[in-house]
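so my prof wants the structure for this chain in the tokens format not the other one, which i didnt know existed until like an hour ago. anyway here's the sequence
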Amino acid sequence: MLASIDLNMLLVLEALLEHRNVTHAARHLGLSQPSISRALTRLRGIFNDDLLVRGSGCMVPTPYAERLAQMLPTVLGPISGMLNRSFVQGEWRSTMTMAMPDHQALLLLPPLLPVLRERAPNLDIVTDSLLAGALRRLEQGDIDLAVGQIGEAPQGYFRRSLYTDRLACLLRSDHPALAQEWTIDSFASLRHAAIASDTKDGFGQVYDELVKLDLQGRDPVLVSNVLAAALAIVVTDLVLVAPHRVAAKIAAFLPLAIVDPPVELTSYEAVLIWHERCHRDPDHRWLRQEIAAAAAGQSRQQARGESTDASSRQ
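here's what i got, hopefully its the right format
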């Protein structure tokens, strides 16, 4: 029985029951009057009922047609929802897991979460600080998005640059090195704090580069995350090399100084990466756009801050 029913017939029936006039139903659907008349004949055969009969001013529904009129919205509504692939504010009910190192969460979550609370209040966000195996986990659906310093996206993955940042040094504000000339030698004499990384991306790349430049006389002090490193720097002579915007965020709350490294280091690029299985999903696309907007807002904020700092030094 179901195989013989054309979904378009149900739309015609819905229009006929609403307008109770073949001409008006045809106009509503953008079809010709003869085609609606033929469809009504087919519907009468499908349901084995007259459905609509002539009345004094319009067609009137049979009792069975009245029951169908009550059922059609619950039938056609979900089907319309299946086909309407667009983000609807406030209706997204899901849990999204994002692989995001803690320093990225420090930057992106403060501007992102208020937007999600307003426009997608039923969306739960779970962050996972581990980037190891991110591509495999994206493919398998263990995570939905990954944010960090990630290389080229292989086939089947998409990659969007969020921001590029220079690297900076964080030291305690009364560090003895700040009272001296800031040179490669003074920088090399310091012991570094290093973020224990599960991957060669991100902070792992930073310290690999420092090792190649032979700027570290001793092994770095490994700490679990960037906030732990910052708290250690406040009370020690350690130095942390971090993306400038991360350093600025931390220095706003702790007595820390930010100085440029006395040697040229590769810039830091943070990217957003996802698997093609989510690429066309409207909800995922909306979230990706909001993450990019949060990163862009951080870029503008940093630019204003640097402009203010430059003005104050003049």
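also thought this was worth mentioning. The first strand starts at residue 52 and ends at 54.
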